[in-house]
């Protein structure tokens, strides 16, 4: 198998951009990523284009990538359209890595893009809510048929139910979840690409509008738009380009099996592939679609023991300046969560961290990074999960 390197990485700002389109966002990210790698569109051997919701929100189906990339110079290369809920972009990256590692092409491009803002917000929420098993709606009753649910977001109702169970099991409190949001917004204040750059206090988080008990709106990721692109190539091609490449040490994609465990399975595969463990990580970007998820992921990745997520947060070690920094970009909570772009957006941040080009949010001496990106729900498990490990 060929060693795979990230040669170029770029993203648009994440936010709410009324005048943007899937095409304009894609063009910006692709152009900047290719420039970062020092490559032309003609040198790209294959493209994997990720998007989750355009079909429902714009009516564009079937050939989303070909349409979005029509004027980029990439037409003619194979374009593979990828849809895998919130893990769409990381799935596209996994496929790009696989194509290069297997020798099918020397250079591949992964693009993730989403435009979730819509004049009718209910359509955006309806699109997101399709990422569950529509043939077995009864399994969701445990999440939705409660007095705590039903304020507009099915996924936040699910996260809230998981959170209540986590609180009962571990003793974590709403105040702990508020501190996750405080940390994320502190980090995002240093990120010019983040959707929300204003710092918040724990009191403001707790006092913000209730979405689904115990989640308040400042504990939930926002709707937004954005795109991100990653150029991967063989190590030999990277040397020829003279780029400061970041090595892909492990990239595992698994599907949920209906019972909680997809993250642990994906993490085990990625760590085994990389020959590394949680203790080796310097910086992480994780899927904090709701603030409590960050603490749960700490435990599932082995950053701390079971039930110790809140204690790890309180220790300060996952903040900038700590030994294992989590979501220096601001995470989904503050950087934003345009779902089809999120996975590649995480990898752009980690590539920049490992190259030492993150300015005031730089993690000093970062050498090993991990991205965790999940999408959809299947029973009690995440439907699609990708864990990626990068290193200098």
UniProtKB/TrEMBL annotation:
Entry's EC annotation: 2.3.1.176
UniProt-listed InterPro entries: Thiolase, Thiolase-like, Thiolase_C_2, Thiolase_CS, Thiolase_N
UniProt keyword terms in alphabetical order: Lipid transport, Lipid-binding, Transferase, Transport
Tree of life domain: Bacteria
Entries under SUPFAM superfamilies matching the protein: Thiolase-like
Name used for this protein in its record: propanoyl-CoA C-acyltransferase
GO biological processes: lipid transport
Domain Thiolase C-terminal, residue spans: 262-383
Domain Thiolase N-terminal: 4-235
GO molecular-function terms, A-Z: acyltransferase activity, transferring groups other than amino-acyl groups; lipid binding
Organism of origin: Amycolatopsis endophytica
């Amino acid at each position: 198998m060929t060693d795979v390197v990230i040669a170029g990485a770029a993203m648009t700002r994440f936010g709410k951009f009324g005048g943007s389109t899937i095409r304009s966002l894609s063009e910006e990210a692709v152009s900047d990523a290719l420039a970062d790698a020092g490559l032309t569109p003609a040198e790209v051997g294959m493209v994997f284009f990720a998007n989750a919701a355009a079909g429902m929100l714009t009516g564009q189906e079937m050939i989303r990538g070909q349409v979005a990339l029509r004027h980029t110079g990439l037409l003619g290369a194979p374009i593979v359209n990828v849809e895998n809920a919130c893990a769409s972009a990381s799935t596209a990256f996994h496929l790009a890595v696989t194509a290069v590692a297997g020798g099918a092409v020397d250079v591949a491009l992964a693009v993730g893009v989403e435009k979730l803002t819509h004049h009718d917000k209910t359509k955006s929420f309806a699109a997101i809510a399709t990422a569950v098993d529509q043939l077995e709606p009864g399994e969701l009753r445990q999440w939705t048929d409660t007095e705590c649910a039903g304020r507009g977001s099915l996924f936040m109702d699910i996260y809230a139910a998981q959170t209540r169970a986590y609180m009962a099991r571990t003793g974590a409190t709403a105040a702990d979840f508020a501190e996750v949001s405080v940390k994320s917004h502190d980090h995002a204040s240093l990120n010019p690409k983040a959707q929300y750059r204003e710092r918040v206090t724990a009191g403001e988080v707790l006092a913000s509008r209730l979405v689904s008990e115990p989640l308040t709106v400042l504990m939930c990721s926002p709707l937004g738009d954005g795109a991100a692109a990653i150029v991967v190539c063989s190590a030999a091609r990277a040397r020829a380009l003279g780029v400061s490449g970041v090595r892909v040490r492990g990239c595992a994609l698994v599907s949920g099996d209906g019972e909680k465990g997809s993250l642990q399975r994906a993490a085990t595969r990625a760590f085994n592939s990389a020959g590394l463990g949680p203790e080796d990580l310097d910086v992480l970007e994780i899927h904090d679609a709701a603030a409590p998820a960050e603490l749960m992921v700490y435990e599932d990745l082995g950053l701390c023991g079971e039930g110790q997520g809140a204690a790890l947060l309180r220790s300060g070690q996952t903040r900038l300046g700590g030994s294992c920094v989590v979501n220096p970009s601001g995470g989904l909570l503050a950087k934003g969560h345009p779902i089809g772009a999120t996975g590649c957006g995480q990898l752009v941040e980690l590539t920049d961290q490992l190259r030492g080009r993150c300015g005031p949010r730089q993690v000093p001496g970062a050498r090993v990074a991990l991205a965790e990106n999940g999408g959809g729900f299947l029973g009690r498990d995440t439907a699609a999960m990708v864990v990626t490990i990068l290193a200098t």
